[in-house]
Specification:
Elements lengths: L13 H15 L7 E2 L1 H8 L3 H13 L3 E2 L6 E3 L4 H25 L2 H17 L5 H18 L3 H13 L1 H8 L2 H20 L2 H12 L3 H14 L15
Antiparallel strand pairs: 1-3, 2-3
């Protein structure tokens, strides 16, 4: 099953383009949890009126990425500890199901690609290229979603992963977490290649489910590891 191609940039409205830029900045951590999104500042940045900015923020709010507040600037959603626990529990089950189906349906080409991504992570783990590690890690998980060959499942898993993406990115800054990722991915990969559906699902759940001590460590580290405020972005001209 193939997904529909994304609309070309020329066919997107101003609000859609603004939404895409802000989504990318939220997912990358350039706009960290709690970041302020002022309509006037965004309108000046994108060189548009406040109407498309307001529409873009509404769409981001409906996706759970932004909180729109009465008479105050919108802000990137901050997730409380209990909410993170709940979301990681659900995500662990969704990604476990992806791994289970991938063990049954993955193609030889996808196995080769998954092995290549794992080796790329091994090469990056002991470097200071944390953002590169995070991106390759994201692609590793994305390939498993694709290998499951269930488009609806992939969409739901990806949507939830995006909502906690900024928090997962912060965990990646821990060298011990990167080392743990390698071991956990290796186990997931072995089970998928062997066609071990139950083993793949269990290994992926264990990898994703940041509960107990791991989650407490994660939450405790978050305030100290929050990205420094980015410099004010330059203006973005949107084509008519």
């Amino acid at each position: 099953m193939t997904s529909k191609p994304a609309p070309s940039a020329s066919r997107l409205s101003h609000s859609q383009r603004i939404q895409q830029v802000l989504e990318a900045e939220i997912f990358s951590g350039a706009l960290p949890p709690g970041a302020r999104l002022d309509e006037v500042e965004l309108a000046a940045r994108f060189q548009v009126s406040r109407t498309p900015v307001r529409e873009a923020l509404r769409h981001l709010a409906s996706a759970g990425l932004v909180q729109v507040r009465s008479r105050q600037p919108a802000q990137v959603v901050e997730l409380p500890a209990h909410k993170l626990v709940e979301m990681f529990q659900v995500m662990a089950e969704l990604e476990g199901l992806c791994a289970r189906l991938a063990a049954r349906r993955i193609t030889p080409a996808q196995i080769a690609a998954l092995n290549a991504l794992h080796q790329a992570l091994v090469a990056l783990a002991d470097t200071d290229r944390v953002d590169d590690f995070y991106e390759v890690n994201r692609r590793f998980h994305e390939l498993i979603y694709e290998a499951a060959q269930n488009e609806f499942l992939a969409e739901q898993t990806r949507a939830l992963r995006n909502r906690v993406g900024a928090y997962r990115r912060l965990v990646t800054h821990r060298s011990s977490r990167r080392a743990g990722t390698l071991d956990e991915h290796a186990q997931v990969l072995r089970c998928i290649v062997a066609g071990d559906e139950e083993g793949a699902a269990a290994a992926m759940r264990d990898h994703v489910n940041l509960l107990g001590e791991k989650l407490l460590d994660f939450i405790a580290l978050f305030p100290r590891m929050a990205p420094a405020p980015a410099s004010r972005p330059g203006r973005v001209a949107l084509a008519p």
